[in-house]
Specification:
The protein has 4 helices and 4 strands; from the N terminus they run αβββαβαα. It is an alpha+beta fold.
Length: about 130
């Protein structure tokens, strides 16, 4: 008994599948706005700048992973925490890392759906 492939046939279905996969792969690439310059708040508490101006720290590494995915380039804006918090609320910078979520802050700024990390705190005691 011969299996009927419908009106498209085997090669038609393969071609449609390949076209569908190509469309799925191209859509996210277009949504990322490659080449966009994003202004990021930079402060000393969680980020470091070396003597030659090289940046490091958890936030910096995380932001570099985001840039690899989106194609963004960054302009870092250095200030203290309170100034940067006000700047992100006023739209003077685009991103600020390591902000704790509060209902009050959520009324003024957009938070990512997923956290960039989680912290655990412990109490240590002297056992002697």
């Amino acid at each position: 008994m011969k299996y009927k492939m419908g009106k498209f046939g085997l090669w038609g279905r393969i071609l449609l599948s390949v076209l569908f996969l190509l469309v799925c792969l191209l859509v996210p690439a277009q949504a990322a706005e490659p080449g966009k310059t994003v202004r990021i708040g930079w402060y000393a508490d969680t980020s470091s700048t070396g003597s030659q101006g090289e940046r490091s720290g958890y936030s910096y590494e995380y932001e570099q992973m985001v840039a690899a995915y989106t194609g963004w380039t960054y302009e870092y804006v250095k200030a203290d925490w309170n100034e940067l918090l006000q700047m992100v609320q006023d739209g003077d910078i685009d991103l600020l890392s390591n902000i704790s979520y509060t209902d009050d802050r959520a009324q003024k700024m957009l938070f990512s759906d997923l956290p960039m990390g989680e912290e655990k705190y412990y109490i240590y005691a002297d056992l002697t």
